[in-house]
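Lecture notes, part 5. Sequence design as translation. It can be helpful to think of inverse folding as translation between two languages: the language of shapes and the language of residues. The source text, in structure tokens, appears below.
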């Protein structure tokens, strides 16, 4: 099933605390002065994707188009192929048929230009937090820019832990370090596979706001896999709802309300609409 894209627009003002505009503009007071530079962001296009594991067909003929600067959330029941689709976008797996393009370039394998953030932070325990963030440029044979590393540590809010051992980090701090490590490669797109699912609710909500602020500030396109309805509605410009295999994408819900305050009427209305669609595709 095709997923047509809704244009992302730049924020033309500061959003209220715990809110953002329909184009995923700045979140909270800390985001004042940031915006999403959609003209500088990159599109993600998957065309006629088919993925099969032996006799198991995951999806067939799936189309996905994500506009520059957009946050698109993939939501669906367990085992519906959300992570498989993200892996295909990232080049971590090969499609059985079809193709993926990021900024017009065919994806044939992993690339630092499309950064992946996993549920597990996967930090190197023998390196400090700073050294973990520096590892991407070093693996590419580049000397990390100390000022940029400082900026990234500050961007994700862990500048005070730069020299700490990773074992000393909480789950939320470790995930921040993982995100900074991905951003050190200056990716054109962020592909996130349930990165907050193992965190407590308060930490999860805090990192959701931080992610939106960072995406806005850096002007990147993002695809975010989640099984959490509230998270999908809060983060996404659109929510692509996937049905049980091999259905693929069954419905796309545009999130059009002007705020993302979690307890206002517009958010609850959007949440109810997405939940209804999930029920329709077989959510138990």
């Amino acid at each position: 099933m095709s997923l047509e894209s809704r244009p992302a627009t730049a924020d033309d003002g500061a959003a209220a605390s715990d809110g953002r505009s329909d184009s995923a503009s700045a979140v909270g007071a800390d985001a004042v002065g940031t915006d999403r530079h959609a003209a500088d962001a990159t599109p993600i296009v998957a065309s006629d994707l088919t993925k099969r594991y032996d006799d198991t067909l995951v999806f067939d003929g799936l189309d996905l188009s994500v506009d520059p600067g957009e946050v698109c959330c993939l939501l669906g029941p367990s085992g519906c192929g959300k992570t498989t689709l993200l892996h295909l976008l990232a080049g971590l797996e090969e499609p059985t048929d079809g193709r993926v393009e990021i900024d017009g370039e065919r994806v044939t394998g992993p690339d630092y230009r499309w950064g992946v953030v996993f549920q597990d932070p996967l930090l190197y325990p023998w390196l400090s937090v700073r050294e973990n963030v520096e590892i991407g440029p070093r693996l590419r044979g580049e000397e990390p820019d100390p000022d940029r590393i400082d900026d990234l540590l500050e961007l994700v809010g862990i500048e005070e832990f730069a020299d700490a051992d990773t074992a000393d980090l909480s789950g939320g701090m470790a995930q921040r370090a993982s995100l900074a490590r991905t951003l050190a490669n200056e990716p054109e797109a962020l592909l996130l596979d349930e990165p907050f699912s193992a965190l407590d609710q308060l930490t999860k909500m805090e990192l959701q706001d931080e992610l939106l602020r960072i995406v806005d500030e850096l002007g990147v396109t993002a695809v975010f896999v989640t099984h959490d309805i509230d998270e999908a509605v809060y983060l996404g410009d659109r929510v692509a709802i996937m049905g049980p295999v091999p259905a693929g994408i069954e419905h796309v819900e545009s999130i059009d309300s002007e705020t993302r305050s979690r307890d206002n009427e517009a958010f609850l209305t959007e949440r109810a609409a997405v939940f209804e669609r999930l029920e329709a595709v077989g959510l138990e």
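The translated text above is only one of many valid answers, since several sequences can fold into similar shapes. Residues 1-37 have pLDDT under 50 and may be disordered.
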